[in-house]
Amino acid sequence: MGLRKPPLHATHAERDASFTEFGGWEMPVEFDSIRTEHAAVRESAGIFDVSHMGEIRVSGPDATTLMGRLTTNDVTELDPGDTQYACITDDEGIILDDTMVFRLPDEGAPQYLFIPNAGHDAEMYARWVDYRDEWGLDATVRDVTEEWAMLAIQGPDARSLAAEATDGATNDIDRFRTAFLDVSGVRSFASRTGYTGEDGFEFLVPWDEAETVWSAFDCQPCGLGARDTLRLEMGFLLSGQDFDPVDEPRTPYEAGVGWTVDLDTEFVGRDALETVEREGTEERFRGVVLQQRGVPRSGYEVVDADGTRLGHLTSGTMSPTLGEPIGLGYLSTEQAPPGTRVRVVVRGEPKQANVVTPPFIDT
Amino acid sequence: MSFDVPADRRYLESHEWTTTDDDSVRVGITAFAQDELGDVVFVELPAEGDEVTKDGEFGVVESIKAVSDLVSPVSGTVVAVNEVLFDRPELVNEDPYGDGWMLEVEPSDPEEFDDLLAADEYREQIE
């Protein structure tokens, strides 16, 4: 099967980007260097093409019920224009994907748009349709992933850049709020959210007009490489890596996102999660900072001074901001709470590390 | 993009270079290799006095995004290690054929050089 390509693929190739396969998409991983791109986002601003993210639109009289029963958070809290981070869990409470839920302006009935991770759009579309039919709900579900490109502008200067490109329209958008507006004359959807820890916007723009919006921002283009190091410094989960229903099955409580679970609502996985919440979890998602030279990576074991296993890492890198090796992973709740000195096994060598609670940096 | 491939060195398909002096040679990775890796953040090298073997792994180079084994183009004894790289691994990106060198090796079998790629052969491989 061929890889899916974002609408700006040729533009990125012309800009000499290098590409990588991610979630079935061929996406730019690096334009200049990860370090340069990372620093731009922390210090000024960067623009990302994240068109590999999915978009599913749900509307109709029962849209709120359908969204509420398939996500862990309380969707009834949302007014039009609001956003909410949530998990999508199976019957056992295992995270299938994490997602942003946007409540759109009502059009006779409630409307939502949610953002599955790269490569999860078809699966989530099918899940929504199957449950809708099983429950006999009146809602329309559409996979609009290839109708909308997604561009993220992130960094301390993102807000002023966005204001310039939208005649000030983005100035009225509070954090975690959204609006429809024009970017360089292109009707777009703007959400004041992101995946970097910096202020900024994520724009959904019509697939064929992505070029106009992309070129409206005069700032550092950034690839998935910098997107990964930026989210890692914040301790944000990466779907398919920090959790995965097959390779890394975890509940929201283990993954440190128990705050997205509202047990007062009815949703798939709720009963299992109530038990997990009551009994606690054996492992928890933590950060580690290496005290010795080396780079923590996904899959590395974490042990104590005697070599007894405490857990393993699911992500890691050399933090460009700190210049220190950082990792994320699942460690024994009892044996390795934050503050514990542990060892990360790098190619057979145990390297000293401290357990911390992410984020690794203040933004 | 075209990368520098100095004519006075010999190369491995796995993108390491060696000089071809008689008594001791320098070993490192090519401009193409450092560009593929991106920002180098860590190198693990053998100690002085260690033996390396042609086509054998002698260390590891890590960038932000990737881990790569280092393969020795020569057999012999390590007589110097570029310890500056432990604090400044970015030199591998900035000057791969100069300050970013990794090892100095006293070759045990100079005839091995004949099996290595000449500059034009290596250039063909990366173009």
Descriptors:
heterodimer, A: 363 residues, alpha+beta, six-stranded mixed β-sheet, six-stranded antiparallel barrel, 8 helices, 19 strands, 32% strand, B: 127 residues, six-stranded antiparallel β-sheet, three-stranded antiparallel β-sheet, globular
Q: Mind explaining what this structure looks like?
A:
Chain A is 20% helix and 32% strand. Chain A has helices spanning 9-14, 34-43, 63-70, 121-135, 158-165, 210-214, 224-234, 270-279, and strands at 18-22, 25-30, 46-49, 56-59, 83-89, 95-104, 111-115, 140-143, 148-154, 178-183, 186-191, 200-206, 220-222, 283-290, 301-303, 309-318, 325-332, 341-346, 349-356. Chain A has a six-stranded mixed beta sheet with strand order 10-11-12-9-3-13, sandwiched between helices. In chain A, a hairpin with a 5-residue loop joins strand 5 (83-89) and strand 6 (95-104). Chain A is globular. Chain B has helices at residues 31-37, 84-87, 91-94, 119-126; strands at residues 10-11, 16-18, 25-29, 40-44, 51-52, 57-63, 67-71, 76-81, 103-107. The A-B interface holds A 16, 29-30, 33-35, 225, 228-229, 293-295, 297, 317-318, 320, 325, 347 and B 1, 38-39, 41-42, 44, 60, 62-65, 67, 86.
Please summarize the sheet with the most strands of chain A. Answer: 6 strands, mixed
Kindly report the average pLDDT value of chain A. Answer: 97
What is the first-to-last residue Cα distance of chain A? Answer: 41 Å
Give the H and E element order of chain B.
Answer: EEEHEEEEEHHEH
N-to-C SSE series of chain A? HEEHEEHEEEHEEHEEEHEHHEEEEEE
Q: Give the uncertain stretches of chain B in residue-range form.
A: none
Q: Please name the two chains that share the biggest interface, counting residues whose Cβ lies under 8 Å from a Cβ on the partner chain.
A: A-B, 18 and 13 residues
Judged by helices, strands and strand pairing, the structural class of chain A is alpha+beta
Outline of chain A:
globular
Helix percent of chain A reads: 10-25%
